[in-house]
Amino acid sequence: MNTFDMGVTPDAIRQLLDELEANRRSRRTAWATLQPMRKFLEANGARISIPDDRNFETEGEAIESGLRRTVEGRDAVMRSLIRAVYRFRDATLVAEKKDDFGNALQNLYRELERVPAPLAIGAPRSQTNSQVACFRIGY
């Protein structure tokens, strides 16, 4: 009988198996944490790609990328909406800018239409953002 003694004790093997199991649990926990984040972001308008090789590293990268694009896009929309509100405010209050009122109002409507649904200002689904704004502004 040929035996090969590498000097590996049963305790060392048991320790390696325990480390392996701890690593598996850690990966399962990471995966379980990422999935509700993905679902929440997708439910709120984020477009998140599905990696070909789905593991928790690529899944985390895809979620981060989708979140980054969503936040940057919403920031741009909000900045544009704020500029439109200031322009409209100036057209209603500043005497020199009163002849811009029609264009400023149309610009405000356009920017309100760009606001993503989760950020809409309390509109029922049957109304557009600009219809709600008209009602609140009084037009």
Keywords summarizing the entry:
mainly alpha, 139 residues, 0% strand
Structure report:
Helix 2 (56-93) packs antiparallel against helix 3. This protein has helices at 10-43, 56-93, 101-114, 129-137. It has 139 residues and is mostly helical.
Uncertain regions spanning at least 5 consecutive residues: none
Shape: rod-shaped
Q: Which structural category do the helix and sheet elements fall into? A: mainly alpha
Beta-strand percentage?
A: under 5%
Give the tally of β-strands.
Answer: 0
Helix content: 55-70%
Strand count, sense and closure of the main sheet? none
Mean pLDDT: 83
Distance between the termini: 96 Å
Question: How many domains, as an integer?
Answer: 1
SSE order in H/E notation? HHHH
Could you provide a short overview of the structure?
By secondary structure, the chain is mostly helical.
Describe the SSE topology.
Elements: H1 10-43, H2 56-93, H3 101-114, H4 129-137
Helix pairs in contact: 1-2, 2-3, 3-4
